[in-house]
Amino acid sequence: VAYYLDGVNVTTNLVRGFRVDGSGNLLWGGTMKDISSVASGKGRLTGAFTSSGNSLLVWADNRMDGNGVYGQELNYNGDLGTVTSVHEVDVEVPDGFVLRQNYPNPFNPSTRIKFRIPGTSFISLKVFDLLGEEVASLISGELTSGEYEVQFDGRGLASGMYLYRLHAGEFVHTKSMMLIK
After folding, report:
1. Which residue has the higher pLDDT, 94 or 75?
2. pLDDT tier at 64 (50, 70, 90 boundaries)?
3. Is the peptide bond before 104 cis (omega within 30 degrees of 0)?
4. 158-162: long-range contacts (C-beta < 8 A, 24 or more apart)?
5. Does the reported pTM lie above 0.70?
6. Higher per-residue confidence, 21 vs 59
7. Across-strand partners of 171?
8. CA pair distance 49, 47, nearest whole angstrom
9. How far is residue 46 CA from its own chain's centroid?
10. How far apart, in whole angstroms, are the C-alpha atoms of residue 66 and residue 64?
11. Is the pLDDT of residue 8 over 60?
């Protein structure tokens, strides 16, 4: 099953999809399926499959009746399910602290470190060499709930292994990264 934005011109798009069998034959009556009912500027198409095999598709839509986020359920047999229009999007609150692996790793000369915090906390994000000496303090202050990304520049440091540590209240997590020059 595949879905795509079909652009008639720059400002007119449809969400379309198709399903093929193992031999590459089109199913759903042998044609592409129109999933959106209104031709309008669309973008950011994303989707997921349910445990029953149905698809849930969501996209940004610039319809004449107002901009918004629209969704469509598509049954495994190609029949359209529920249509949803959302003009106000709820933001999911993170449910725990997470420190992600830096990217790229190894790096030269800079890398990105991402982390998530579930609520307002005093955050400390520091980089250490393998002797435990602090080489950089990237964050030291109060942050609100959310996902964060920090750029670390290792230009003034020697090649080698470094550790970065996120400390927030009782949460402490450390990961390693490799600087190669």
Report:
1. 75
2. low
3. yes
4. 160/129, 160/130, 161/130, 162/127, 162/128, 162/129, 162/130, 162/135
5. no
6. 21
7. 168
8. 7
9. 11
10. 5
11. no
